[in-house]
Amino acid sequence: MPQLPSCCGLIVIGSKQPVPLKGITVDVQVKGFVADVSATLKYKNEEEKAVEAIFVFPMDEDSAVYSFEATIEGKTIIADLQEKEQAQSLEDRSHWKNATDSNAHKTYDEAIKQGHQAFLLEECESSADVFSCNVGNLPPGQEAEVTLKYVRELPLEADGAVRFVLPAVLNPRYTPKDQPISVTATRPQVPIGEIPYTLSLSAHFQSAYGIAKIECNCATSPVEYTNEDKTAAKVSLSEGHKFERDVELLAYYSEVNKPSVTVEAGLVSSDAAKEPKSGSLMSESVAMLNFYPSFPAAEGPTNRGEFIFVVDRSGSMECPMNSEPNAPMRIQSAKETLVLLLKSLPLGCYFNIFGFGSNFESFFTESKEYTQQSMEEAVKMVNEMEANFGGTEILRPLKKIYDTSGRPDHPRQLFLFTDGEVGNTKEVIDEVQKNSNNHRCFTFGIGEGASTSLIKGMARAGSGISEFITGKDRMQTKVLRALKCSLQPTVNNVSLAWSLPSGVEAILLSKVPSAIFQGQKSIVYAKLQGKVETEADGEFCLQYTFKDELLKNTIRFPLKIEKVERPTIHRLAAKSLISELECGKDSRSEEMKKRILETSLQSGVISALTAFVAVNKDTKTPLEGPPVRRDIPAPSNYGFMCSGGARPVAMACRRPPQSKKMATGAGANHWRCFGPPMKCSANASKSAPVAAYDGMPPPIVMQSAVIPAAPPSVPVEETPSFVKLISLQNADGSWNLNPEIFSILGISEQEASKKNPDQTKDSSVWTTVLAVIWLHSSCLDQREEWELLEGKAISWLKAKAGSSLDQFVRAGNELLKSSVDPKVFGL
To answer: Which residues of the chain have pLDDT under 50?
Structure first.
């Protein structure tokens, strides 16, 4: 593959050639926690020559794509799911990792050479959340539609919302040295607001427990309930919507934390040739188990643990969190989150912070005990952090961490923050998996375009949880929720036991989670092999050890099996099994590849080893000569949003300031660029795509074009008052007497001193009581962010104030004109 030019550009700007993709129509059917999606891409060739349109787009890695078809001149062509071999034939497809001439590609390529129309849909082998759709030999003036269908599980947010996202943004994935350039680096990008195609989306929601409301981050029609009991509703995007940002729909059901079992009958076909093979996944009934493990609340968070926070400091972290005016920069939000984490840690634990980019550094040579001094030292360094480390080398700091021995009796908890753009996703996940016995991994994808394969894959491999922070989400809320999970005592020996009618056997298709957390939903798929009587009942029991006590969560369910037209549960189970096999330790063995292929081809669900291909051999007049390639552009979060959010008129390039502690290396030569790329020297092709933002090779010398000043900065939103208050808290949970605190509380220091009910006691007791009362009376909506540090404060108060605490609370309520319940303080 020819090396991409080391041009000093930020992103690829789409050419002014006509774009054959005119619009996308999406129909979403949501039943409970499962979405069945049909997306139709409408093409029209307005050029004088035949074109091959290539559209590279993101999709959540848990999506099970099960259908692909094309419609030309009223004729529908159903695509076949075919095997891909290890390499591909065409040079310009060499960015699809480890692929050669394959069955699917051979079919597609030969059809194109013969002048027929052909269509190809495939998953990028290096990352399960990137797909490519090829529409080949579209004649001048002709229209075509391609429709892909997929199903996926929907996550549950902390506030009870069921979340559906249709991703639009596919940021360039950083490619480590000596790795093939990621396909995302060559994809054309256009500024926000200049997408040349529209999106039409309608969504239908169903929930047996009722739908309280539906929210969307884009303009929509009013929500319409389609029945009287409000168990069904629909909503649509406003007409003419530009697909320039992720579309997020949040549905609030009346009841969401109820365990459930769904059993789906095996497929029966009237066509003997299409009858599923006996004993295969599609021929047997499949059960989907939704459970919410519950166990006794711990008396308080354990003070044992080693907490390692790994923070992305690559250039892309200087992009805003969202496209709203004055949105905070990603790095600024990460810094604020780190301060909250540091304030929330329990005394007696150990911690360290790593920053990574093209290189990496750690605050301390080894994890330090959490004390007032070490916390102050870390907070100071956090406030000095910048997004100035170049690329996104996640693997190297991980290896450094894993090569360092952990501390006895202090279980290691790894928190990783990144905007998730790497080209070696599989290697990173493998490294986490290899070390899964000695740590738990919690991951956070920041901003639109974060790789779902990376973020979810690392958390799954490390028995942790993953979160995505997009739109107006506060990073702090989701991260502090994960910290609470990490502070829970470890649940061990998780297993699943079945009680089924005679002759029926349950065979797991997905792993039982190795770690479970209070209030976190888990899904397990199982094949029910054997003859199932419709009137019979079944039972499963999730059991585990918690603090040396064996606990059981049992659910009894009727084996009422209904035949369905769309085998949704079977497809989700097939996707889950494929993902398990692809992420397993022996995923590259011939035996595993055979199992992946069998599961994919039998279920019709795409995998990294298969692709959908359709050929229209009824072309009236076969076309001559190769078609003109047209890459469909996509919205970009970079260049036009970075460093202030405003779109600069021209490009500015400069070296970033370097960290004092940063070692020399790749990061030292990294350039940050703003705006559209300028012309480069003769060493680079003018028409070649420009390399990705994070971590590309050092730029070549620019032509004599004038480099204007950097774009003007845009003020970011002010730090919330409660965050300012928290930043002043001590490691033990107390607050010292400080004029800044009283400014936040809205009272004078003299007034506070005068109302102190016990002048003989340490003034920190009075100040801490006032701080806790103010948090409850003024910032209750943000309690999830300060609940842990409040717990530390109250524990400290009980030890220091003793029997006089009640007196302090009454005086504090009077001074702050509030009515906080003394029970908050354990009184």
So the answer is: 1-15, 86-101, 639-716
φ/ψ of 661, rounded to 5, equals -90, -5
Q: What dihedral do alpha carbons 373, 376, 378, 379 form, nearest 10°? A: 170
Residue among 694, 696, 675 nearest 684 (CA) = 696
**C-alpha span between 770 and 812 (Å, rounded):** 6
| Residue type for position 377 | E
Domain 260-297+491-603, architecture per CATH = Sandwich (2.60)
Length of the chain: 827
CB 42 within 8 A of CB 23: yes
Q: DSSP letters of 323-337?
A: SSTTPPBHHHHHHHH
Which H/E stretch holds residue 591?
helix 590-603
Q: Which of 139, 128, 147, 7 is nearest to 69 (CA)?
A: 147
pLDDT of residue 709: 37
Helix 783-801 vs helix 475-487: angle between axes, to the nearest 10 degrees?
A: 50
pLDDT at 268: 73
Q: In this predicted structure, what is the pLDDT of residue 101?
A: 44
Q: What is the largest CA-CA distance in the chain?
A: 98
Reported in sequence order, the residue ranges of 419-480 that DSSP labels E, i.e. its strands, are: 440-446, 466-469
Would you state the pLDDT for residue 521? 83
CATH superfamily of 306-487: von Willebrand factor, type A domain (3.40.50.410)
How far is 367 from 350, CA to CA, in rounded Å?
A: 6
Tokens of 317: 């972290």
Domains 260-297+491-603 and 306-487 share a fold: no
Secondary structure (DSSP) of 178-196: TSPPPGGGSS-EE-TT--S
Phi/psi-derived region of residue 455, left when phi > 0, alpha when psi is between -120 and 50, beta in every other case = alpha
What count of Cα atoms within 13 Å lies in the side-chain half-sphere of residue 685?
9
Contact in structure between 488 and 164 (CB atoms under 8 Å): no
**Which amino acid is it at 624?**
E
Nearest to 462 by CA among 491, 424, 430: 430
- 500-525 pLDDT per residue, tens: 998 899 999 998 887 788 778 889 99
User: Which is it for the CA torsion 25, 218, 185, 460, positive or negative?
Assistant: negative
Can you give the residue ranges of every domain in the chain?
260-297+491-603, 306-487, 721-825
pLDDT tens digits, one per residue of 313-334 = 998 898 888 777 778 889 999 9
In 3-state terms, what secondary structure has residue 483? helix
Its pTM stands at 0.82
Beta-carbon contacts of residue 545 (< 8 Å; ≥ 6 apart): 491, 492, 493, 551
Please provide the DSSP assignment of 645-694 as one string.
Answer: SSPPSS-EEEPPPPPTTPPSSGGGG--EEESSPPPB-TTS-SSSPPPPST
Distance separating alpha carbons of residues 351 and 373, to the nearest angstrom: 13
How many Å apart are CA 338 and CA 332, to the nearest integer? Answer: 10
| Closest of 63, 69, 38, 176 to residue 129, by C-alpha | 63
